[in-house]
Amino acid sequence: MKMIAAVDRNWGIGYKGELLTRISSDLKNFKTLTIGGTVILGRKTIEGFPGARPLPGRKNIVLSRNKELDIEGAMVVHSIEELKEVLAGQESDKVFVIGGASVYEQLLQYCDGAVITKIDEEFIADAYLPVLDDMDRWKMVDESEEYEEKGHRFKFCTYVNNNPENL
Fold first, then answer.
1. Residue 16 φ then ψ, to 5°
2. 0.90 cut: is pTM over it?
3. How many CB atoms are located within 10 Å of the residue 166 CB?
4. pLDDT tens per residue, the chain (167 residues)?
5. Cα radius of gyration (the chain)
6. In the beta sheet, which residues pair with residue 18?
7. Which of 9, 50, 69, 117 is surrounded by the most beta carbons within 10 Å?
8. CB 95 within 8 A of CB 60
């Protein structure tokens, strides 16, 4: 299972339920990587999608403590144990954790890799990803050249978790 996110210099990922910025190259990369696979996300994240609808072309699994939550077109699970049962037998390279902050935090230890778009800016943020660069088990293994789009400079970075826990 992999994590995918766009972060600013402070590893901020969102503000008031929205992305910090929208970079079309990042969104295209996200779609290319996740299409045909499974995405795991929280309730607030799916509520931020257009029409609060699941992402098309992907199996959407919403991790939420709310036992009453029902989202058409998505599977809702209420615990890591339940998620583990649902993911049993799936190819882990096609499973992506896509946010928000609490879902990243809960599943970080189970991810064997991460695709992080690093945006060379500081935004006002109220949601953050743990700083992988500061964690011994995480190592950046690839970094793209720097791109620029609409004044935003960014790189695509690939990380591996040297000691992921089994989900």
1. 50, 45
2. yes
3. 6
4. 999 999 999 999 999 989 999 999 999 999 999 999 999 999 999 998 888 899 999 999 999 999 999 999 999 999 999 999 999 988 889 999 999 999 999 999 999 999 999 999 999 999 999 999 999 999 999 999 999 999 999 999 999 999 999 88
5. 15
6. 15
7. 117
8. no
Query: In one letter, which amino acid is 95?
Result: V
With H, G, I as helix, E, B as strand and everything else as coil, classify residue 19: strand
Buried b (16+ CB within 10 A) or exposed e, 49-83: eeeeebbeebbbbbbbeeeeeebeebbbbeeeeeb
Q: Which of 64, 52, 63 is nearest to 17 (CA)?
A: 52
Q: How far apart are CA 124 and CA 19, in angstroms?
A: 11
